[in-house]
């Protein structure tokens, strides 16, 4: 499986010519010559027993079919070896360099020099190096017993394991799973790979030059008395054979060598690599990371995070979903950590035109910081590994490739676009002003007006119903069929939507053909009808636009708190902390009541509020706020009550100069001993503990 590379395996079929002649042709010739075995077997004399194999215990298996890297069965007869069946007369044999020819009436033997173009058949335990620098050693097979006897029957009658050691002596990164491997028995009986999760597996991350790895594969065979193996570095490399009676020696392929079938670059961590397509990937420095509350992965002694920056220097629009990656620590793959609230491991949405850039924050659990290899692949472009291992050669771009020059007519687009036309147009305007995206789509939002809603079951305390119209004119070439993506903030609080058919207030279903106009009437429960901000976009690829009662606001300049660069800080409830990002937060509490709560049982109900203010000149997306509230030494039970403005709010942007309050309910027995811990909304600042 390929690493978080979203676990992708690159499968390449081996070429048939050398496989047929080596594994079958020579095998048949030696067997009929009377050696008592194929080239892939031990010498089996009818009067003697087959040599015993060492044994190894098995583990639980899966029902996965045979290895995807196995060589296809030949469709033609082998070009070497006998053409007719032998008689019952004992054949005449010579030494291992003799080729024997047999007919139905006579048996003769002739000695010919080995074909220099055909690799030797090695004895197990010997090594072979291809001219490209990849070296393989296949240890002698060991008998193996699968634990699931019933399941294993379809794989073969007998089972063996092979310990495979691979050394990357090439000048580029190499994925061990590129190795082509086939095990046979009985001359023409093809073995089947038996997948056992308990056996050491090949590394899923590429090996940098100088790295080595050893793993074990299990195979089911018709018999373990004759075992043959064919192996090749990749589909462009010649195959080499291994056999129990192999006569070759540890050797190296002649010639100056050729590059591997697929080029994989090597770059230092913190460096940048450019593919031939023009797309470049840069990796920032790894630094310590503390998983958020919603993070998932595996528990590790430490966690590190970094940022991948992808720049589209090609002439095509790209999508972040083409990016995949994985990390190994000394050839051991590490588990990626994902945390939606921290934007860790989440790919950005949309499409990115030539000249644009996007970033992805990634994190992994590790045991140390040495020997890191980050494998990055961009679909249809190629692969590169970033490492802090010493490598003899570092690549900055694919060799011999000319980097395309992106078109300059449109300049550098800073965000996502659709397939055909850019739909940028993010803006902050006042109600009644037109918003125009660059693909010709426009929106006009009317000023919210109060109305009397008949459906008041979800009306928050102190809020009033307001409604407004959104008029979309589709000046693009494509129809718009979607849910209008929108959100409303009023008086610094997120607003619940209102659907009231009696008042003509409906849902946000949008359908507009090219050249047509559609108008939606929407509503919400506003905390302050005089202060309303509506954010919207007609569909996912569009940039967000904002319409407000006052238009854009100028942020005030504030200095970051002195602990902003640290790991922890303390504040009193009601105080303000300014993060290095420029976002400030003040945490306070107020009385609140959960739905259905009964007073008088000695329980205190509070709303823990975090008021965030954007002191930067860039819209900031709040993915929610989940503080840890402690009732003395124990975690407090939480609750939500939308009628009291207590509930999660995700996907809302905090505009420059504006504030937004998010609240979480807490059920307490010791309200005088409350403490609250929270993080920067960008999840890069210190953890702050707030106390009375």
Layout: helices, strands, pairs:
Elements: H1 16-35, E1 55-57, E2 98-102, E3 107-111, E4 121-123, E5 127-129, E6 134-138, E7 142-145, H2 149-152, E8 158-168, E9 180-185, E10 189-190, E11 192-194, E12 212-221, E13 227-232, E14 240-243, E15 251-252, E16 264-268, E17 272-274, E18 279-283, E19 287-288, E20 302-312, E21 323-329, E22 332-334, E23 336-337, E24 357-366, E25 372-378, E26 382-387, E27 428-430, E28 434-436, E29 441-445, E30 449-450, E31 464-474, E32 480-483, E33 485-490, E34 493-494, E35 497-498, E36 509-512, E37 517-526, E38 532-537, E39 545-548, E40 568-572, E41 576-578, E42 583-591, E43 604-614, E44 620-622, E45 628-631, E46 634-635, E47 637-639, E48 652-654, E49 659-668, E50 674-678, E51 687-691
Parallel strand pairs: 1-7, 4-14, 5-15, 16-26, 27-39, 40-51
Antiparallel strand pairs: 2-3, 5-6, 6-8, 7-8, 8-12, 9-10, 9-13, 11-12, 13-14, 17-18, 18-20, 19-20, 20-24, 21-22, 21-25, 23-24, 25-26, 28-29, 29-31, 30-31, 31-37, 32-36, 33-34, 33-38, 35-37, 38-39, 41-42, 42-43, 43-49, 44-48, 45-46, 45-50, 47-49, 50-51
Protein name: DUF4352 domain-containing protein
Organism: Nakamurella sp. A5-74
Region (Disordered): 47-123, 395-415
């Amino acid at each position: 499986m390929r690493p978080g590379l979203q676990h992708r395996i690159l499968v390449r079929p081996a070429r048939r010519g050398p496989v047929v002649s080596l594994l079958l042709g020579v095998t048949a010739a030696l067997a009929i010559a009377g050696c008592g075995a194929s080239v892939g077997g031990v010498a089996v004399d009818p009067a003697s027993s087959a040599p015993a194999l060492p044994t190894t215990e098995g583990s639980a298996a899966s029902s996965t079919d045979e290895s995807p890297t196995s060589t296809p069965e030949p469709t033609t007869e082998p070009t070497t070896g006998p053409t007719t069946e032998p008689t019952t007369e004992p054949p005449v044999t010579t030494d291992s360099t003799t080729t024997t020819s047999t007919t139905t009436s006579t048996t003769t033997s002739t000695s010919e020099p080995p074909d220099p173009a055909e690799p030797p058949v090695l004895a197990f335990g010997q090594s072979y190096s291809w001219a490209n620098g990849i070296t393989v050693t296949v240890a002698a097979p060991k008998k193996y017993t699968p634990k699931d006897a019933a399941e294993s029957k379809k794989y073969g009658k007998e089972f063996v394991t092979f310990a495979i050691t691979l050394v990357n002596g090439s000048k580029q990164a190499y994925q061990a799973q590129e190795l082509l491997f086939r095990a046979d028995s009985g001359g023409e009986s093809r073995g089947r790979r038996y997948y056992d999760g308990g056996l050491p597996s090949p590394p899923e991350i590429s090996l940098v030059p100088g790295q080595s790895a050893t793993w074990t594969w299990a195979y089911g065979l018709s018999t373990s008395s004759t075992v043959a193996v064919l192996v090749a570095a990749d589909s462009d490399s010649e195959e080499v054979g291994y056999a129990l009676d192999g006569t070759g020696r540890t050797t190296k392929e002649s010639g100056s060598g050729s590059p591997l079938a697929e080029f994989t670059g090597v770059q230092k961590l913190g460096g940048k690599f450019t593919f031939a397509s023009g797309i470049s990937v840069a990796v920032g420095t790894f630094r310590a990371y503390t998983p958020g509350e919603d993070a998932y992965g595996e528990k590790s002694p430490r966690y590190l995070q970094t940022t991948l920056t992808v720049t589209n220097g090609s002439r095509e629009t790209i999508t972040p979903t083409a990016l995949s990656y994985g990390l190994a620590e000394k050839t051991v793959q590490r588990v990626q950590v994902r945390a939606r609230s921290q934007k860790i491991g989440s790919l950005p949405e949309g499409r990115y035109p030539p000249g644009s850039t996007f970033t992805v924050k990634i994190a992994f659990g590790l045991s140390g910081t040495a020997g890191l290899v980050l494998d990055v692949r961009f679909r249809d472009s190629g692969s590169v590994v970033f490492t802090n291992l010493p490598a003899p050669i570092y690549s900055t771009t694919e060799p011999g490739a000319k980097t395309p020059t992106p078109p300059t007519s449109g300049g550098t687009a800073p965000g996502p676009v659709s397939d055909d036309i850019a739909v940028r147009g993010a803006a902050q305007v006042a109600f009644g002003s037109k918003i125009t995206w660059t693909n010709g789509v426009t929106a006009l939002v009317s000023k919210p007006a109060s109305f009397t809603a008949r459906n008041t079951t979800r009306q928050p305390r102190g809020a009033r119903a307001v409604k407004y119209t959104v008029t979309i004119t589709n000046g693009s070439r494509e129809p718009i069929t979607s849910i209008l993506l929108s959100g409303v903030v009023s008086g610094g609080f997120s607003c619940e939507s209102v659907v009231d058919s009696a008042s003509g207030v409906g849902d946000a279903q949008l359908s507009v053909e090219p050249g047509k106009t559609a108008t939606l009437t929407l509503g919400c429960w506003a905390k302050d009808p005089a202060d309303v901000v509506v954010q919207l976009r007609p569909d996912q690829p569009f940039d967000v636009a904002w319409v407000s009662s006052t238009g854009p606001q100028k942020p005030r300049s504030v200095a970051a708190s002195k602990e902003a660069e640290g790991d922890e800080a303390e504040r009193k409830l009601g105080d303000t902390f300014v993060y290095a990002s420029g976002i400030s937060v003040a945490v306070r509490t107020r009385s609140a009541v959960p739905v259905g709560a009964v007073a008088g049982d000695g329980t205190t109900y509070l709303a823990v509020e975090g008021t965030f203010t954007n002191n930067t000149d860039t819209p900031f997306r709040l993915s929610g706020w989940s503080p840890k509230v402690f009732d003395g030494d124990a975690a407090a039970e939480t609750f939500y009550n939308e009628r009291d403005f207590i509930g999660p709010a995700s996907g809302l942007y905090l505009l420059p100069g504006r504030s937004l309050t998010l609240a979480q309910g807490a059920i307490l027995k010791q309200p005088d001993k409350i403490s609250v811990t929270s993080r920067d909304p960008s999840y890069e600042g210190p953890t702050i503990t707030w106390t009375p």
